[in-house]
# Entry
Amino acid sequence: MSRIGVTAKYSFLFIISATMAFLGLLTGPSDIPPAEILKVLAEDNSNVVHTIVWDIRLPRIGVSLLVGGCLGLAGTLIQVSTRSPLGDPNLFGIGGGAVIFMALIAAGILSTNKFPMMLGAITASLIVSVLLGLLVSNKDVSPIKLAIMGIGLGAITIAIGTALFAYSRVFPAQLLGLIGGTFTTSNWDSFLFLLPTLSFCIFISLILSNRFQIITLGDVLSRSLGVNPVVTRFLSMSLVGVLAGSAVYAGGIIGFVGLVSPHIARRVFGNSTFHIIIGATLVGSTIVITSDQLARLLFSPIEIPVGLITTLVGAPIMMYLAYRLR
# Structure
């Protein structure tokens, strides 16, 4: 693939994401003229429009882009390290670990502030991801078995989280926001947490991209080429835990983004793991910010869960992929 062709494809994804971000900035329940919004971006005013733009719309745009990137990259790492085409951090229950932790806080069983809550969500997801990584290292677990076990684990974690929310008697809207995915509570704190987290994970993933490429050939060939598949898989699944926990903390459970993004990136950029990592991250960002705009605007001023939009797109693709598996 030529460098010009790759750059053009990256640019196309950037343009779509930028268009959706611009749409999110200019539209919403508040009827604000576009000229006034653009004026607020250039001036430091403390009026209502400034609050809407800088404290509500811009953080939401930024967080949705970063959450999508986290999910797209996490899905790629799962599919590469497990060789399962159905890999998705939320379908496999990795994000469910963070849901259980946040439900424990909502139920009053745990008490903490924002930053420890972020770290706790990551830690909970890390535990689940490492367990899945250990399962993959078992030679008797095929990619299909792993997918079935992961989906079952995901259902269990969501059930436990929902039970804890029911125990805590939280409002249904709060439960729907976490289980269905929403960015209504996005703020700059979440953005500033996600940005270095995603950047770090992309950096490490690109460094390990050659190893990821080799382990797709199988454990025997990987060892003969000097790559330890167990260690590489452990590193990959650890990154997945960090990404999934971060995404759930900031946006809730948004399904199928991690499943679909790597397949789209593979079709667009070929089989180079390096380009798939970057491409799937961009595709995930594009999918999530587009889904968020649809969730905001389809039935405005009522919002629907972002995960509903991604599920309507991703579930048929998952069924198609499962049908093609032999």
